[in-house]
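Q: Could you fold this chain for me?
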Amino acid sequence: MIKSLVKSQDVIKALDLEPHVEGGYFRRTYQADHRDQLETANGPRYLLTSIYYLLDLQSPVGQFHFNQSDILHYFHLGDAIEYSLIHADGSLQTLVMGSDIQAGQSLQLHVPGGIWKASRLLDGENGFGLISEAVSPGFDFADMEMGNRRKLTRQFPQHRTLIEKLTRDEG
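A: Sure. Below is the predicted structure, expressed as structure tokens.
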């Protein structure tokens, strides 16, 4: 197990990742600053941004959050990551990103804007999972809302157990 922690820390260091507010680690790797920005309801945004995003044993959960923009996820390496998506109608979709396509894991995942999304690292031999995300219109923290446990369980009581597992307690 210690070997996997070292591997995780090596990846974090090599990619210069930093802690993300939703959990895990990230670094923006691209923004389309050579193109005109898009006008959105919340102001101008880059046409496209991209990040690396990593979950590991120290930070295995990306808490429920809501993005305005569409996001394409690309699996790179490590252990599989499970995504829980709660749609506006309350339906739950669970998908796994990973390299085992024979087992139904996905190398790519599209999450449209307007969906509550959380992720968690699944048990594996690596102790981390690494993806990239391409976001359009480009990511801006003003377009993201972190999941409030009380609010989400009121809105989606049928998913209370999952929401409690994948949000922080507000105290």
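A (continued): The chain has a mean pLDDT of 94.
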